[in-house]
Amino acid sequence: MTDTSQHPTPPAGHLAKARPSRLVLSLVLAGASTLGVGGLLLSAAPAQADDPAKKPAGAAAPKPALTVTVARTEQRTVPRVLVANGNIAAWQEAVVGSEANGLRLAEVRVNVGDAVRRGQVLAVFAAETVQADLAQLRAGVAEAEATAAAAAADAQRARTLQQTGALSAQQIAQYLTAEQTARARLEAVRASTRVAELRLGQTQVLAPDAGVISARSATVGAVLPAGQELFRLIRQGRLEWRAEVPAADLAQVKIGQAVRIRPAGGEQEVGGTVRMIAPTVDPATRNGLVYVDLVGERGAARAGMFARGELQIGQATAATLPQSAVQLRDGFASVFVVGADDKVTQRKVVAGRRLADRIEIASGLSEGDRVVASGGAFLADGDRVRVVEAAPAASSPSSPSSPRAALPARPAASAAR
Length: 417
Fold this sequence. Notes:
The protein is an alpha+beta fold and about 425 residues long. It is about 25% helix and about 35% strand. The protein has helices at about 10-50, 130-160, 170-200, 410-415, and strands at about 65-70, 75-90, 95, 105-110, 115, 120-125, 205, 210-215, 225, 230-235, 240-245, 260-265, 270-280, 285-295, 305-320, 325-330, 330-340, 345-350, 350-355, 360-365, 370, 385-390. The radius of gyration is 53 Å and the shape is rod-shaped. It starts with 11 loop residues before the first helix and ends with a helix.
């Protein structure tokens, strides 16, 4: 038997009260440990943040998006031009018609677009009727010549006998009158013969001048009246551009100024020279016509076409950039300007004429601005770039020192971001 007297068993209520006390003590100790560790972490965090050597690798300076060369505007002499629109027309257009009346058209020898020379036969009418009339008139001339010769002989004898009194004055007057009548009839028949010869010549339609056939209405077998149009001819093949220039700008146009036009749908420019300025202005449009002779190769230029042209009215000095520096975005010309921190800023500019490999900058840049010379299509506003010296002007675009060769092999803009 176990002796319980030395270790009496505590009451049940006393055990129930002792257990919560131990639980509270355990919770207090655990909280103190947590606060101590947290305090150590909080005290260590500022020290770690203030230490530059312990910064993470991701916080390094951003890498350049591209390696680029820069360009600055250059002052160059550019032509001052006046832009105008107008139609291309024939310098002079001749109408070739029929002179023979009531004859059948037997042959047509040219067509639209054919180049002809002055006096060339364009068409031929049937000439049998005219030839028969001419033969009859020539026979009448021979008869009239014989009659006139006989009358002249009788008149000469009458003059010889006039002093002798063998013939009366009345008879002598009759012989002299007969001579004059026969001579007049001979001249009339000869004139009729000349008319018939002219009609025979008119059976051949001749070109009035050298040029190009622009229209044809002649049809073989047609019986045409006199004056009927058969062909239209552009004289000497000359074309002109009739530019419509505002009245306020007409004072700048001078005879002899050079002009460059581009016909609608044509890629080749056509040269010209101002020949004449119209003395009047259209009161409805307030535009005046400037007549420009087209010279040299005409390319796609045709009479009746619309064309846009530039009249060179002088020269001026303007700022220019390489064409590769100007980008077209959202319908506007823009460039990327490199700042002092090597970050690029997109800036809109007003572009003018293109001069070989350069382009005129009318406004938008200041003198001394550094502009990305090439590769702007790979940049965005705010990108950082690395600037290198420009390649020599004599270097080839394919050489390693050219600006295009300096572009990195990776997609720079997307890789930098």
